[in-house]
Each structure stands twice: as C-alpha cells, then as structure tokens.
Specification:
Helices cover 24% and strands 42% of the residues. By secondary structure, the chain is α+β, with helices and mostly antiparallel strands. A 7-stranded antiparallel β-sheet has the order 2-1-5-6-7-4-3, with helices on both faces. A hairpin with a 2-residue loop joins strand 1 and strand 2. The longest helix has 10 residues, at 97-106. The protein is globular and about 45 Å long. It starts with a helix and ends in a 5-residue tail after the last strand. The model has no long low-confidence stretch (mean pLDDT 89).
Length: 142
C-alpha cells in the first residue's frame, strides 16, 4: 500500500509515534521512533521486549502520529495526524542498518556517544505492512 501525499507529509516528519500492539486481545501502547523501508514502516526495539513478543503472538498493530503544530488554533481544533493499521513481523537487523536509519531521522548528525549504543545492544525490527491509513485534520474541519 502506498501512502497518499497528505499521510506521507505527516509521516515524513520527525514525530514520536504511538505503537499499539495486542496482549491477549487488549491494546498495549508504547512511544516509538519509526522509519521507512521498502514501503513499510519500521520500529527498532530491544530484542526480547514485550513489543516483539506481542507482535509474534498477534501481528495486528496500529501506529499513530498526533501532530499539534497549530499554536494559534485552540487545542481542541489544532489536531491533525495519521493512523496506520496493518500486520507486523519481527526481524533481525544485521549491522543495525535499519536502526541506524531510524535514529538518523531524529538525531542528525548522529552523536558520537550514540554510535557505541548502536553497536552494544541487541535489537529487533518491527516491520509494519500498512493495510489501512486514516487521516484527520481538525484545522480543516475534518
């Protein structure tokens, strides 16, 4: 699935997203950094963490980006964002290629001290294959 221009404009920003996974049918949410790879959204997480286990148990996920960048508009009207629902999988990240790309979106240039963290921590990638995208923009009344 390709993202339309409005969704992509939000997704390409450096926003912190909320990743929702399922634990025995109930939602579990975590704030995450994300990136793009081959039309999918990707999230890096320490290997063995709950997010990875949740995705292995039930691949249905949602990623939510809520943008509030219209300070002149009352808070109740200034929201816009995107929700991406899809199926996810957990995979290895040889050489921390995807993790490095995700971090570079948010911290560019990459701080030297972060390089040691990239090398010293085993991590997994959660790959989200989008199936449904929902936009909202209350600054435009929708």
């Amino acid at each position: 699935m390709e993202f339309d221009a409005e969704a992509l404009a939000i997704l390409e920003g450096r926003h912190v997203a909320v990743l929702a996974t399922l634990v025995r049918g109930a939602p579990a949410m975590a704030c995450v950094w994300y990136g793009f790879d081959q039309g999918d959204l990707v999230v890096s997480t320490p290997a063995g963490r709950r997010k990875s286990k949740n995705v292995r148990d039930d691949p249905r996920v949602a990623l939510l980006i809520d943008v509030r960048d219209a300070p002149h508009v009352p808070a109740a009207l200034g929201y816009r964002g995107v929700e991406v629902r899809g199926r996810a999988s957990v995979e290895d990240d040889p050489g921390a290629r995807l993790r490095r790309a995700i971090v570079a979106r948010y911290l560019n240039p990459l701080p030297v001290e972060f390089e040691a963290r990239l090398q010293g921590e085993e991590r997994s990638i959660i790959r989200i294959r989008p199936e449904r995208v929902r936009l909202w923009d209350y600054t435009r009344g929708r």
